[in-house]
Amino acid sequence: MTFSSSQIKVFFLILLCGFSFITAQELKVIQLPQPQTETGKPLMQALKLRQSTRSFDVKKIPVQELSNLLWAAYGFNRPEAGRRTVPSAMNWQEYTIYVVLEEGIYVYDAKSNCLSQYASGDFRSQCGAQDFVKTAPLNLLYVADFSKAGKASEDDKKLYIPADCGFIAQNVYLYCASQGLGVVVRGMVDRTKLAETLKLKPEQKVILSQTVGYSK
Ligand SMILES: Cc1cc2nc3c(=O)[nH]c(=O)nc-3n(C[C@H](O)[C@H](O)[C@H](O)COP(=O)(O)O)c2cc1C
Questions:
Q1: Tens digits of per-residue pLDDT, 115-139?
Q2: Which residue out of 54, 56, 184 has the highest number of ligand 1 atoms within 8 Å of its CB and is therefore the one to mutate?
Q3: How many CA atoms, within 13 angstroms, populate the side-chain half-sphere of residue 30?
Q4: Residue at 41 is within a domain
Q5: pLDDT at res. 2
């Protein structure tokens, strides 16, 4: 059986449309509810309770909790000025937070208050070698883009960029303490594997990861 060139073109067009449909269907955007900024324990109590947990229940984190947590981590608290809940050296705002859930990897878009799906599937086991990482409901990956540090010296970049990550991680620790969630920040991550999975550019680096869930 032979096909004319126009039949072949139609065939490929159908294939392409089908593929785009599947991709569009698989990669979704989750609109987050408005973060609740009047919730949780007072700061001094949260500081008293802050600690690392390494034993997590599999129970998922409700979307409202996720919205609050991400806002605390890296949301805009002064949206009119484009400023966030965390400081950053020279206001580089060089971090992207990848949100790894059982169903896929998402990027936190603080401006639109949504999660844009980056990949579907369970990638939690790639977030760290410790056993609890694979089953805890949420892992956050803090990815710094060193190119956003502009003309800073290499020494300044090496010092300030990880320091900026510390503020994000501490906000997450304090939010979790104030809400009774378990959390641990982790440096032990396979950065090479994650860079592959997230298709990071050479100037982007996973600095730290943080696991969140309900303590067992
Ligand atoms: C930069 C950094 C890296 C860390 N890496 C890991 C890690 O890979 N795995 C882990 O279980 N805990 C890790 N931790 C958590 C520390 O072990 C923990 O904070 C420390 O033991 C003190 O316990 P606390 O947080 O309950 O006060 C890390 C902490 C920091 C600040």
A1: 999 999 999 999 999 999 999 999 9
A2: 184
A3: 20
A4: yes
A5: 55
Q: Measuring from atom 31 of ligand 1, which residue has the nearest CA?
A: 185
Structural domains counted in the chain: 1
- Residue 52 alpha carbon to ligand 1 centre in Å: 7
Q: Which domain holds residue 199?
A: 28-213
Residue 98 CA to chain centroid, in angstroms?
2
Dihedral sign, Cα of residue 28, residue 171, residue 88, residue 196: negative
Residue nearest to atom 15 of ligand 1 (CA): 185
| pLDDT above 70 (res 146) | yes
φ, ψ for residue 74 (rounded to 5)?
-160, 20
Instruction: Flag whether 11 is in a domain.
Output: no
Measured N-to-C along each axis, helices 63-74 and 154-179 cross at an angle, to the nearest 10 degrees, of 140
- Is 21 a member of any domain? no
The CATH number that applies at residue 129 is 3.40.109.10
pTM: 0.90
Mutate to test the pocket of ligand 1, among 47, 49, 51, 52 (most ligand atoms within 8 A of CB): 52
Token pair belonging to 212? 């969140």
Q: Ligand 1 centroid vs 211 CA: distance in angstroms?
A: 11
Which residues touch 29 (CB under 8 Å, ≥6 apart)? 114, 115, 116, 117
pLDDT digits (tens, 9 = 90+) for 68-109: 999 999 999 999 999 999 999 999 999 999 999 999 999 999
**Do the domain assignments include residue 185?**
yes
